[in-house]
Amino acid sequence: MLGTVLVVLVVLGAVFAGLLAPDPIAMAPIDRFLTPSMDHLLGTDNLGRDLFARVLFGGRIALVVSLGSTAASLLLGVAAGLVAGYGPRWLDNLLLLIFDALKSFPTVMLALALVTLLGPSEWAVVLVVIIANAPSYARMARTQTMSLRHAQFVEAERSLGAGAGRIIASHILPNIVGPILIVASMDIPVVIAIEAGMSFLGLGVRPPTPSWGTILESGFEYIQDSAWAVIAGGLPIIITTLGFTFLGEALRDTFDPKLVTGPR
Amino acid sequence: MSAPALAIEHLSVDYATAAGPLHALRDVGIEIGAGEIVGLVGESGCGKSTLIQAVLRLLSPNARITAGRMALAGVDLMGLDPEAMRKLRGDRISVVFQDPMTALNPVLTIGRQMVDIQYRRREPRAAKRRRAVEMLKRVHIPDPESRFDQYPHEFSGGMRQRIAIAMALMAEPALFIADEPTTALDATLEVATIELLKALQREIGCAILFVSHHLGVVAELCDRVNVMYAGEVVESGPVRPVFQRPQHPYTQRLLACDPARVRERTRHLPTIPGDLPDLVSLPPGCVFADRCPQVFEPCRRAPPPAVKTAELEALRCYLAKPSP
Amino acid sequence: MNPLLAVENLVVRFPVGGALGHYLKGEPRAIDAVAGVSLTMEPGETVAVVGESGSGKTTLARAIAGLIPVAEGAVRFQGRPVANLGRAARKELHREIAMIFQDPVGSLSPRFSVRGLLAEPFRIHGLAERDLDAEVTRLLGLVGLPPAIAERHPHQLSGGQARRVGVARAIALSPKLVIADEPTAGLDVSVQGEVLNLLNELRERLGLSMLIITHNLNIVRHIADRMAIMYLGRIVEAGETAAIFANPRHPYSLALLSANPEPDPDARPRRIALEGEVPSLLARPAGCEFHGRCPFVQERCRNEAPVLAVGPDDRLVACHFPLEPSAN
């Protein structure tokens, strides 16, 4: 319940950022480091920009990048896992090799390497997330597929003449997707942290675009002058992380098969 | 006269469901004397599993015992706290379930498992090992000394079931519950396992509650039998009268349906038409009324009480002729 | 006139373990789950294949249905060879040979409604232009299920209902041969009769031929004209059902038939108790593969494998010393 509330708040804040807050990029050097007031709910940063606005607009980046890259990871990962689990042995071995190779890259080094190639941007973040997460989803999908491959209902479908495509799409995918979605929703806080972290290090979103990571970056630089930027950058990360974590756990509990609703 | 191994009186269990309480067991009474073998016969939905879970006090979180008493060798089971109940399980009551594939821990050798479950005894390991090997011999596992260190997957299904029985009986419990122990086994293995159970029971002298829907096996193994339908014990007594002269229409139909009994080839095997009643909103009268070929007027008004007849301990049917 | 089904010396082989097992332990690289089976069926017949775990009966059924590849031998359906077909030809075959699987609920895809499950055979074979709703209603009627059941999902069905849905799926495209793997498994005694009565009725109405795989001898008597008993991947006895029940000639048949306790406490079981367990397929015994457990074993049995030979009244037996009627 709490998780849903927190997530909804964050989403609403991001969606209605334009209505709720002033321009996040407008600089007003005179108004640097103001403490919170009615005009500036979270104060201003080192360039006089309204922090509350930057937080809300930063939320857009966080949500779009995290949800988008998670969706992409799921798509690629689950598809690869299905193929690996149902296809011939050699294909499985090949794909496993690829998954394991990708997973063994430390995320930070991967981020640095990609940014060197592509330059810092949101797309670098997306790519890092996909490479970091898709292999895990692929492995989960593969394992589930392999166990369902020999299920009696799959054999029954084969005996009716169903081909591999139909079986994978209609009979295996719907039955494996649940737990993977739950894991993905619990990964979202991690993804948000990746985005914030990369932006913080200057590898992701570039100023003046507001991102919670860049807010934190300039906040730390000027922490002697005002702590509000650090608070403004850190607080939303904490709230969103908690929100998605609680939500994911609640989802997991809802689907827990141990909660029996009658005699077994 | 020692206390009966198991005495259940007027036991009722409800499950909480979205549609209201589901009355899984209603006024169930079962008695197993020390050293007796008693059968429990019934089909899906009769409440067998709920009954076993109730005796073991391992009911699901949404189940509640709404009435009744249970006593194991004189000890009141309902009054025990969870710790005391845990001590009883595996020691005074032990269970073997249907599936020999999943009864054993696949990552431990069977020897290790058999020694581990003797944790209550304060003996040196070597003595426990000896007892375990001895038990394996008694259940006819060939080469027990060397097979002691093998893993469950290295044994066939029939052997795994025998090992599970060995583990259950090693503690020499007062009550041994066998829940469909032979249903997953082939016919030739099934009869071998039944012979084994008979022999072991003679040696150890425990009481057995044998739950099965294989009527033939129950007839051969048990001294007395309880027939359950939709949460009630409808007929109960020594095996001979129940199997040879069944009084309850359900028992009669059940026995008639058993293809083993139908000697002549036929296109139309007997069946019991209809379905189980809804256990959430029970019919006002006898629970079998809708499917009973001999239903008459009083059957729909109120559930028949359990009466004692000349040959039977309990019969729930308005056709019953109570013993004087 | 071709028999409907002719199986000739069929061998189905499964690779076992890795190369390491072969070199280190001297284990064989493969087991023959079906080790040379021959069998014929005429149109309209019902034949039962009986055996215990490890007998190969289920593997045989899958091989005939085209679900697994065949190592040696041939399967001919209406005269055409049908083993190891390519994908397109195999799909055609699945219209003519249908299979009903053992687990009534587990053989139905959990997320599909009954309607979806029954419509699927038509969709798979490109027949979706037919009025699928009408077909679904027709099939439900044929198996005696109420139309309302079409909206339910497999976990909402009882064992008997799920079993009927399985039957309906199998007959959807009007196959010539239906293979039923343990049709009464998982069903209560009081509903077993329903399935068997249904299969008998459908056989007559639709002119089906049926191959029943089971370890339950009690039902074989009521549904099969002929039966074959398998042990370790081979047929040990085959013939008319009633005749085998009255006078089994192979000792294993006798043991199987006697391992059937009757629900009568006074029936003294005249039982043949078999020693030991079914040998592993990795270590097939020499000579007659049953000799290690046979209560009537003799010297010749240990050294020489018997051949499945035709005896009087068309009975096939693979035994050096088949039992005489007086032995029962």
Short description:
The complex is a heterotrimer of chains A (264), B (324) and C (328). Chain B is α/β, with parallel strands linked by helices and 324 residues long.
Describe the model.
The complex is a heterotrimer of chains A (264), B (324) and C (328). Chain A has 264 residues and is mainly alpha-helical. Chain A has a single domain, classed as MetI-like fold, CATH 1.10.3720.10. Helix content of chain A is 73%, strand content 0%. Chain A is built from ten helices and no strands. In chain A, helix 1 crosses helix 10 and helix 3 (51-86) runs parallel beside helix 6 (122-149). Chain A is elongated, with a radius of gyration of 22 Å. Chain B is built from ten helices and eleven strands. Chain B has a seven-stranded mixed sheet with strand order 6-7-8-3-9-10-11, with helices on both faces. Chain B has a four-stranded antiparallel sheet with strand order 2-1-4-5, with helices on one face. In chain B, helix 4 packs across helix 6. The longest helix of chain B is centred in the middle third of the chain and has 18 residues, at 187-204. Chain C has 328 residues and is of the alpha/beta class. Chain C has eleven helices and twelve strands. The chains are: A mainly alpha (264), B alpha/beta (324), C alpha/beta (328). Chains in contact: A-B, A-C, B-C. The interface between B and C is large, with 45 and 41 residues.
User: What does the radius of gyration of chain C come to?
Assistant: 21 Å
Uncertain residue ranges of chain A: 259-264
Radius of gyration of chain A, in Å, reads: 22 Å
Q: Strand tally of chain A, please?
A: 0
The first-level CATH class of chain A is given as: Mainly Alpha
If you consult CATH, what is the topology of chain A? MetI-like fold
CATH superfamily (homologous) name of chain A: MetI-like
Helix content of chain C: 25-40%
Number-wise, the strands of chain C total 12
N-to-C SSE string of chain A, H for helix and E for strand: HHHHHHHHHH
What order do the helices and strands of chain C follow? Answer: EHEEHEEHEHHHEHEHEEHHHEE
Q: In the CATH classification, which architecture of chain A applies? A: Orthogonal Bundle
Poorly predicted regions of chain C are none
The quaternary structure here is heterotrimer
Sheet having the most strands of chain C:
8 strands, mixed
Q: How far from one another are the termini of chain A? A: 29 Å
